[in-house]
Amino acid sequence: MQTNDIGTSTSTAVSDVDVRIGFAADLRRHGDRAALVTADETISYGDLADRVDAARDRLGVERQLVAMAGANRVDTIVWYLAALAGRHPVLLLPDDVGHARRIIETYDPDVVVDPVSGPDGVEVVQRHDHPAHELHPELALLLSTSGSTGSPKLVRLSRENVTTNAAAIATYLELTADDRAITSLPMHYCYGLSVLHSHLTVGAGIVLTDTSVVDRCFWDQFRRHACTNLAGVPHTFAMLDRIGFDAMDLPTLRFVTQAGGRLHPDTVRRYAGLGRRDGWDLFVMYGQTEATARIAYLPPHLAATHPTAVGIAVPGGSLSIEPVDAGDPVEGELVYRGPNVMLGYAHSAADLA
Fold it and tell me: pLDDT of 159-170, one tens digit each?
């Protein structure tokens, strides 16, 4: 498979190897370990596999374009994993209703999965009797990018993109089956989605909540379910400052991750210091939807001394600076290469082929 560069025109040849999205297709191997935890129930990997299999059977074997809202809910995750496991490309819709409507109008999905109240938790609408589109054999996921707010432009991600980036993140964070995340970010956002992917990859648990870090019940759940990590964007850290995070007793916290924009160097230093004091690590990270999620991370021991750096490339990737001006060998364009770089953009349904 061709490895692509961000910042250039990208294309990928069809691979003869069928890359399976293991975290969606091999859930059962983690057995009775807790996969999803809510305020009302704990769902084991075995139970989750049963639910995913049932949803996959409903989708059938003929590949279809499946659109769904990216909600931090059990039913949504079940159908998301079912589509991935069944090799149906998933179009995760943004939470902006108008934007989501424009995307549906542009791409005309075969199936729309909507969260609703009731025993099933979702409404599954079959919009076409037969698949309406030609779909690239490796296409797995379609996401809006932050630079295309209000536009139907999407990032096309392959099965290899999704699988390798999840594994890379799990590797540098040293995730194990004993880790447990909490949904501090929305699923339709590539950073929040990467938390789900990387934890499912190693058989770890995910606590599902729609509450904010400013809500007391968020931290009640964090402590009750012994969460080991917290993900945040710069705005999250501003809210943590307001609620007195530095005085919280969180004995199970192992690491905090930050991405989604530049965090002020003073804030990086301060949180790195809090981590040293309280026994957890701070991972400052850089990424783009075009690279599935993560491109680089700053090893925690460098956060205090190099708070402005994006760090080093994620496992399996590489970073280089390619001069734009031949006369300046130091400054140039930052280029990332790796198996997680997108297939390219989509502007219409024709691009899905």
Answer: 999 999 999 999
Contact 258, 284 (CB under 8 A): yes
180: which strand partners? 205
DSSP letter assigned to residue 40: S
Tokens representing 60 are 């059938």
Output phi, psi for 42, to 5 deg: -120, 125
Q: How far apart are CA 194 and CA 187, in angstroms?
A: 8
DSSP output for 177-190: TT-EEE--S-TTSH
* pTM score over 0.85: yes
The ranges of the chain with pLDDT < 50 are 1-18
> DSSP class of residue 348?
S
Structure confidence by residue, pLDDT tens digits, 93-151: 988 888 899 999 999 999 999 877 655 678 888 899 899 999 999 999 999 986 656 67
Burial of 259 (0-12, 13-18, 19+ CB in 10 A): buried
Tokens of 229: 């990590």
Q: pLDDT value at position 292?
A: 97
Rounded to an integer, what distance in angstroms lies between the CA atom of residue 185 and that of residue 65? 25
Per-residue model confidence (pLDDT) at position 290: 97
Strand boundaries in the chain, DSSP class E:
4-5, 34-37, 42-44, 66-69, 90-93, 111-115, 122-126, 139-143, 154-158, 180-182, 205-207, 229-232, 255-258, 281-287, 294-298, 312-313, 318-323, 332-338, 344-346
CA distances from 293 to 91, 94, 166, 169, 285 (A): 16, 16, 9, 9, 10
